[in-house]
Amino acid sequence: MDVKVFHCLIDALNVAGCCIYNDSIPILYHSLIKLQSENHFNSVYLWGRIETSSIDYYVAYGHQKDPIEDKIFFYTQNMLEWDIMPTDWSTLQTDMVRKIKTKFYGNPRYVEIIGNSNKKSQETTEYAISPNVELVFGEEGEEEDNNNVDSLKYDDIVSVTEEINEIVEAESALIDDPNLKLSIKEEDRLAITIKMIENESHIVPRGYFYKLPNGTITKAPYFKGLDYSEIGNEKNFLHINQQYCQPKGQKNDVRPDFNGSIDFLQSIDKDIPKGCWASRLFSDRYFIIHNLLWPGALYVQDMNTGLHGYFYNGYGLKNLDLPFMI
Amino acid sequence: MSNMEIVKSISDTKKISSKEIKDNVQAIEKISNHDRSKVSSRSTQLRSLFTCGGPGMKEFDYDIDINYAIGILKKEDGNVNVYSHLQDILDKILLERPKNPLKNFEKYSMMLKRTYIHNDVNFERVFVDNINRNYCFKSLQMYKCALKKQVEQQKQYNKNKKNIRKIEIDQHEEKKTMNNINDTVQVQNLCEVNYMFNKAGFGLPMDEAAVIYLTMNEMAQLNKFESIRFWGKIFGIKKMYYVIECKWSAAELERKLMRVNSVSHYSKSSKHLDNDVTNDSLRQDPKLIDPENEFESAVSYIEGEMAENSINHYDSWINLNDSDSCIAIPKSSSKTLLPPEIFGVGANKNVYFVTNKLNTQWIELESVKPHHIVEARKIKRYFTGKLKNPINSFSKFDGSETEYLRAQIARISSSTQICPRGYYIIDEKDKADLSRISDLRSTNSISSRKKSVGDLILNENTKPISNINLTNVNYWVHKNPHIDINGVTHKSGFSNLSHSKKHEVNAEEFGEEDHFSYGENVNVNSKSDLFGNLGNDISVDNTSAWKGVLCSPFDPRHSQAIMKSHVWPGAFAVAYNLQTDYMYIGWGQKHDYNMLYNIFMDEIKMENPTQDDTFTVELQEFTKKEKMENETHCLHKNKHNNPFPLRFNRTKYKGGEKVITYYTYE
């Protein structure tokens, strides 16, 4: 959600059952404007909020030129100072993030430890990646090598803040066998989770972005939002992530009004599982799409003014039960 | 002749006898002469429908002036009314001259009605681009009605006052009672409360709040409820549910219980009679409305399509549901089903009204049955937003979405309706009243377990708890009794030790039982703990079940404190000074640590206990050790087969940002 339309969409977010404290709205606004001016961003967006069991994370991003590729993410806990999100991580870490099913702890330095004992769900899911089995095994081979690298890195960090680690161990008394190999800092987990959510559930209306002949992507200056005849069709909503699950077949099902400068992104109508987007018109004015796969991700548009935005408000956990629930 | 009879019956009941229509009808008769035989059988049916609609009608319909009758038919607002509609239909039939007009009469009527709506839509496009005008009109209609009623009330009140001046002593008491009636209905002050909710980030948008508040006031005037509050919203895939929570007033409860008893004693005919009685008490003018009800049931399928577009009269805002769910149970033969709790007790303490759109009818949900709660715990499904929708879940849910919704509401309210400690106390003096109710109940129900119901009343001696303390879970207590594994509330009130022990055993057996257990080590001593302290709640994944936050960390002294539930995401309670309230806005799903398929596996095991020998178990899954070995083995193998040298792999991951493109939908 663009900071500039932030105030206008608060009501719409309320309709969608979102949760920004009224008192923190001005604070967020000011700090985001500051963030924009300091980093010379073209525009800054409030991305969403990750609820934790203590202090919540607010996440924002900005971009300088390319609104799709150049996004830089920030997070904050006190709403005043924004920290840059880490961008480097290994496949091992992403794997681990996929396995963690608990809420965030609320401290970026907290170290999540995956014990070997409590991973029934993980065991069943590990080999479920059917299409490219060899690739998976290859990666795991690499993982083992990477383990050394990672643990080296990790040790560096630990040597600085060894106390924290001990506290953590004391706290996680329920995990019988804390294995240092399988541990991840919450900051990294946050970054990876947000990247995942961003890739899978961030959508824009068709026509919002367009591609110039020289390949640069810009926002359409006179885009007025979708109108009533267009919101019913899922093809009018595009994933912001360009690489999103591109179909293997040729493009034989191109829409009749295909426009190369607009339709360079993937539309959401082929997403798996079918029906993971729930779109409704609330109180005769606000059009809201909820993503059911990542509960809390939503696209909102005010039909009267055409202002629209994306927001995430949730635990940062994927709803793996979705196929059973719809 | 038969056609004439129909016409007569129609004109009798509807009080039309205009010359024009008669002429028209004669023409129809001529047209449809040849298939009279078919029609005659239908006509008798129809006639019986109409006549049974109003037995008292025939006595007085002849002395009504024709012009007056036409006036009645033309009474509806707008350019379309019954009179013009009938005219149009007859015109249409005469023009088109179909073969069997009676058979398709409803169809014609429907087609015509559609054109009316269509006109409306076309019209609006011209002036207000794209804004749905109907929606605004409906809301406006509501406001108009409310205003009208308000004025009437004011008049009534003034009249009473005048009367009092004249006959002071006589009227004094009556006035008192009248005021009492108005005062006893506690309507949640949504405007005020919504301010707090907004601070907490969960507020309702302004237009919703206004309309809901209006509806609640409207309901208060039915004099059936003791208290009314807005429960919250539940999102569905297609539509959203708004839920209002009401508590029956004592008189209404008594009436309902009486009816349940009488029904169980007498036959069905008596039930019918009873129904009439309730209708009498419900509506001011039963004679006018009763036949309409009968009529509705005959043409309900038309209504289904029209309901969306018709502007409802304010009387029909609230769809009260007077059928008794209590009797429905015994017909399911299984022995294990418990009877539902009686109105006003436990999970059925309150009654819930739901709607999809705020300016249409509110529908009363039937009281919840224990087996529905038990079944609802096993499944995890999003609501669709259609009450009639069947639920196709794996572990079977016996019922439609209505029952599922009611069960979820019961679960959520039981586990998330909370208040700061000491704000409410359990009412002792109510005991006599309650014992009477339970007596009534015991005569009716199969199980004669006694239930003492603690009714909560506001504690007048409360001191506000400081904000910092309000964020601590130990300062909050549950307001509602816990629903146990059988789907009924256990013996309520503050927990005694023996009971808490029993409960703990239950909680151990069914690991993911709903919410709180009374730990013995924690202080359950005080009465102010009502139905259990929040600090004792069990959460799903080792973190606490609740999270207390201050709304604005920059001004902690004057900020509201919120309690948010982690178990039911979307449930929250706000407190500031002496004000406190709670609401639910969410998907109606419990946050589960366990994935669903784990539960499935257990279910299957439980279903076929015969197959539960070692052989199948081994096949089903590896033991942990084996799994580990297998993994390491695989890794070793792949390491040797790895075609790339090590350093390449390392540099690959050292590189810049890596986009995660494929991860699986596990």
TrEMBL record, chain A:
Membership in a protein family: Belongs to the flagellar radial spoke RSP9 family.
Cell compartments where the protein resides: Cell projection, Kinocilium; Cytoplasm, Cytoskeleton, Flagellum axoneme
Annotated protein name in UniProt: Radial spoke head protein 9 homolog
Gene Ontology cellular-component annotations: axoneme; kinocilium
Keyword annotations of the record: Cell projection, Cilium, Cilium biogenesis/degradation, Cytoplasm, Cytoskeleton, Flagellum
GO process annotations (BP): axoneme assembly; cilium movement involved in cell motility; motile cilium assembly
Top-rank lineage group of the source organism: Eukaryota
Lineage: Eukaryota, Metazoa, Ecdysozoa, Arthropoda, Hexapoda
Coiled coil stretches, renumbered: none
UniProtKB/TrEMBL annotation, chain B:
A GO cellular component annotation in the UniProt record: radial spoke
UniProt KW keywords: Cell projection, Cilium, Cytoplasm, Cytoskeleton
InterPro entries given in the database record: Radial_spoke
Domain of life of the source: Eukaryota
Location of the protein in the cell: Cytoplasm, Cytoskeleton, Cilium axoneme
Pfam families in alphabetical order: Radial_spoke (PF04712)
One of the protein's GO biological processes: cilium movement involved in cell motility
Nuclease found in the keyword field: no
Keyword presence, Repeat: no
PANTHER family with a match to the protein in the record: RADIAL SPOKE HEAD 6 HOMOLOG A, RADIAL SPOKEHEAD-RELATED
Entry protein name: Uncharacterized protein
